[in-house]
Structure formats: structure tokens, C-alpha cells
Amino acid sequence: MIKAIIFDLDGVLVESKDIHFLALNKALKELDSKYVITYDEHLAKYDGLSTKVKLIKLNEEKKLPKNTFLTINKRKQELTFDILKKSFLRIS
User: Which of 44, 40, 30, 26 is nearest to 86 (CA)?
Assistant: First the structure.
């Protein structure tokens, strides 16, 4: 039986924008630091886009190889979960 469902309208429980920014940049840096984006760049061009769309834009703007998309996306997800776990452990 479901006892509760929690909806997080971004920023209510967790501010995920910064977490996704950090995780994506860590994943990009593992490949090559030339693909890393600044926070201002993120806000101006990438904020609110899915990771898939961000990677396509990075391919267009910084020549991020398409054959790295799956690896970067998977690594970004791992890093996102790691950051979230650490954040919740600090709150507990």
C-alpha cells in the first residue's frame, strides 16, 4: 500500500539545477576539460534542457564527439545520484 507520494517542484525540497550542472561538468571534465561549461554559459544556453539536448548543443558548439554521448550521460547520472546521496546524508 502506498502511504505517501512526494512531489518536488524543483527547488522546493532539492535545488537540482546546481546538482545537474556540477554532475554534467564533472562527467565532461573526465573526458576533456575543454568541454566544461561555465555557470553563466549554463544559465544562458543550457538551463532547463535535457542532458541529451545539452550534449547535442555541446557537439554543435564545442565539437563534443557524438560517440561520447552515452558514456557522458551515464556518468552524469551516476554523479548526480552521488551528489544527492551526500546532500541527504548531510541533512540527516
Answer: 26
Cα 70 from Cα 43, distance rounded (Å) = 23
Q: What is residue 2's three-state secondary structure?
A: coil
Phi-psi region of 64 (alpha: psi -120 to 50; beta: other; left: phi over 0): beta
CA atoms of 19 and 16, how far apart (whole Å): 5
Q: pLDDT tens per residue, the chain (92 residues)?
A: 878 766 555 555 667 888 999 999 999 999 999 999 999 999 999 998 999 999 999 999 999 999 999 999 999 999 999 988 887 666 55
| Helix, strand, or coil (residue 63) | coil
Is the pTM higher than 0.85? The answer reads no
Query: What do you get for the CA distance between the two ends of the chain, in Å?
Result: 26
CA–CA gap between residue 62 and residue 78 (Å, rounded) = 23
